[in-house]
What does this fold into?
Amino acid sequence: MNEALCFHCSESIPDSVVLSAMHGGKSHRVCCIGCAAAVEWIVDLGLADYYRLRNEPASRARSRLADYSIWDKPGFSALYSRHDDDVAEACVLVEGLRCPACSWLIERALRSLEGVHDVSINVLARRLVVRWNPARIRLSNILTALARLGYVPHPLQAAALDAVSQREQRDALKRLSVAGLGMMQAMMYAVALYAGAFNDMDDNTRDFFRWLGFIVTTPVVLYSAQGFFAGAWRALRAGRLSMDLPVAAAIALVYVASLVEALRGGGQVYFDSAAMFVFFLLAGRYLQMRARHHAGDTVDALARLQPALAQRRCGDGRYEQIGVHELRVGDVVQVSVGDAIPADGELLSAQCFVDEAMLSGESEPVLRGRGAHLLAGSFVTEGPADLRVRAVGAATVLSSMLRLVARAGSEKPRAAIAGERDAARFVAVLLTLTALTTIVWSVIDPTRAFPAALAVLVVACPCAFALAVPVALTRALTILARRGVLVVRADALETLPQVSCVLFDKTGTLTDVNASSVQVQTREGTSAAEALACAAALEGGSRHPFAEALRVAATGLPTRSAASLVQHPGAGVTGTVAGVALRLGRSTFAIGDEAEDTSALVLADSHGEVARFQIGEHLRESALSTLSGLRTLGTRVEILSGDAPTRVAVVAAALQVTNWRARQSPPEKLAHLAHLRQSGECVAMVGDGVNDAAILAGADIGIAMASASDLAQARADIVLAGNDLTGLLLAESVARQTRRIMRQNLHWSMAYNVAAIPLAAFGMVPPWLAAIGMSASSILVILNSLRIRIDPPLPLMTSNRVAIA
It folds into this structure.
């Protein structure tokens, strides 16, 4: 008697369980209440097509769902989700996410929930990014709905990442091992058959070796090649042609035809060709998976940087070990040598050396002095270091980088979409050519029809064509990430070589702030310390370099808190400190003094100016080299700044920039961008402030510094994680290489098929040689993509340490 399997998860149904669920007007048996509820909910949502599109059964739904309320608790929520006004965002690892049908189901089911704004999924990485309105729905409700579908959510932690990766590698290796063993055994029997053809082997011995070949090939076809059949069937049910279709067709034809020939005792059998075909295909895909995991290791390493524990200082001076999710802004923590920093904070110790390699691409530990901003995920190499926590969990720079990477992984670049579309067309042409080859040879010589058609089907499989773009992009994104250049949108690598003009912001982009040279002028009756404390409170949540300089200058002063903070992009900030309404920003914003040409920040209350802060700057070391390198490539360079003309002029002269604009508001920057684009320019913008967000989004390529505001990073296509402008030249070089390699891959794939198909059609290529050629073409594409590398850097032209008063 056949074993009863669950309609939802395909697990065995115990004899004692009598449960069913309705789908398509029919009653289907299920194994538990959880699966029954999952089927009913999917059908009620109008998503019953999931059961038609899926290629693997769903994970077993739990009859008793886990309690996900811990995700709503402030400490845990701060660690794994970010809240901005009325929108929150979280990235979670999803167990049981197997195929595009799973992605289709989850996206539509979660988007049907009231309060969910958006859902994006990366099937390969098993990641889900969800954005929702916390006032209308809780994250625990979203995750419960996800679990109700049979998919278990996990925090994005090192242990979960390792488990998913290890399971995928283990499964791939098992399938590859079975295919390898089967191929070797099948070839041994095939050699015996070929030798017997020349030595008058008797029929019984011949049939014996044929059936041995069948026995060792069957596990290869039914187990190792399972993914090809599932992928082809899924695509056909969705009305698409994928590269799995000719692969699955070739394997099935070889296997079935050989079985028929073995049963009728005539002709040749090709069991060895079937096993060899599967092995070489799986070997190519295993290399591709390893390359993807290698790239993923660079990205997932960011998630691994977050430590689980922290040493927090108590009121009596002792230190207690607590979970990172228990940290709060204002806590003082100590980080021992070799440990990772648990949160973004301000260094209280005299100095320490920190390793920021994974965050910035800087290979050597860097020296940080008292008041410096330390990043979560950095490692203390010489210490220990005491720091005051300024940002925890999802508010840290590390979490911002993780969100950017997650967003990049959930978006498919235009080149990859075009490649998939072209591959689908090629599959249609291939199937047509195979049919024509069969018809022609059936007329000329029927005995050669099947081998010739099979060779065409195998030799022309568009695996290499489909790999040409994604493998090259994966390689490019990986090596740039290692050097601190995060490509948030892969399409940027296509556009970057076309850029003809680069616009630079000044403060925080071309210049660094001298945090130790803050000069304060106050009105009578106000102390410099009091003014600094108020200014630091107003700028407490800003990443602008001037804001950090004010906070460093206020180190050691009594801490003030600000309320009712409102940022005014390109102008300043307003808020209330100790019940007094204050304005901090340009003089035109703070006191309405439009005639004054100064970059000093002015603090004002209802009675007028309270204090004036003059903050010194100097050129970044990499600024001159970067701009010179861009000019060498034929790219025009302009400075577009909101600062005073006198200060912008000093920077422009030092960097040999003739075209510059000062006192530019966000609308004026956008107007200049529109003018350049109307002139036919392809424009990139490099900036870091809130006031740069609009132009970063409007430019052909938006490039943000790591110190940029969250809004600026959210609008950028590339983030320079190390705040090193030379990353722009690295990205330019890699983008040009990537474009060249992608074209080479596509041209090679096309040339191979154009040359090989006629030979196969004329019967000059046996099926086993076709399998080797097809697999070799895919491996060649992968190896060619590995040639993308970081070129030797240009000689560093250190910028003169020009002081900008």
Q: What stands out?
A: The chain has a mean pLDDT of 77. The chain is about 50% helix and 20% strand. The first helix runs from residue 33 to 44.
